Amino acid sequence: MMNEKSTFLGEDGLIYCSVCKEPKESFYPSDFLFGLKKHPRQCACDRKEREEMEKYFREKERKQLIERNRKNCFEEPEMLQCTFQNSTEDNFAFQTVKKYVSNWKEMKKKRMGYLLWGPVGTGKSYLARCIANALLDCEVTVKMMNVGGILNDLFAAEDKKEYIRCLMKYDLLIIDDLGAERNSEYATEIVFSVVDARYRSGKPLIIMTNLSLVKMKSETDAGKRRIYDRILEMCVPMKMDGDSKREKLATNKIHDMKEVLNL
Ligand SMILES: [Zn+2]
What distance lies between CA 48 and its chain's CA centroid? Predict the structure, then answer.
């Protein structure tokens, strides 16, 4: 911060900054109507200070925007904790999606998404949340929902088309628990309309499902077949078969218990 004391009067009659040695005043052009008059000007220090201030406010705005996007992305606050930084996982799937995140612009242009499939407890949702959080940090808008949530929302929505349109605004849409919905024509129809709208929006989609790839590819129900075909057009299938997290947790608990009980 400049203060008055750190200036000096130059031989030309202008006040100078004693730090950067630039004048803090300048003369109006000599043919100016009222003669030789001075006006203040910013020295290098002032300009730097102003730039830093602007940078500070820009950064603050950016962070606020990211926080708004993040709140908007997840349905439950604990999902905010699922980040690559917080994770100790380093399996193939993690390494692959980290590359996906760092090449996001290219992936987005190519409309590349993932179909993360595999049994319950293999960390599909966790992985997807890590992707979401990493992209949110880069000002990408992401929406993560499970199929049940979409069905409930759409059932209640007054304007269903508008609801679907809103889902398409996000740079990345992540849908969890495909195949866990109640088996009904209505549900199949809704899921197809969301997946198809996403396809037509030209934006990436990430899907998580407990269904196996073989099951999806050999589906005989025409309605479901339509959904899976669309998904496989947009999403690269990736099998999640890493150690089941829940199982590992259970094993650890049993181990702890044995230690405590001296078994
Ligand atoms: Zn200065």
Answer: 32
Condensed to tens digits (0 to 9), the pLDDT of residues 10-39 reads 999 999 999 999 999 998 876 656 667 889
In a domain, 201, yes or no: yes
Q: What is the pTM of this model?
A: 0.78
- In this structure, the answer to whether residues 129 and 212 fall within a common structural domain is yes
* Cα–ligand 1 centroid distance for 5 (angstroms): 12
The helix (run of H) or strand (run of E) holding residue 198 is helix 185-201
Tens digit of each residue's pLDDT (9 = 90 or more) over 98-110: 999 999 999 999 9
Go through 208-240 and write b for each residue having 16 or more CB atoms within 10 A of its CB, e for each that does not. Answer: bbbbebeebeebeeeebbbbbebbeebbeebeb
CA of 215 to the centre of ligand 1 (A): 71
Q: Is residue 258 part of a domain?
A: no
Last residue of a domain, one of 71, 104, 128: 71
Choose the final residue of a domain: 38, 71, 104: 71
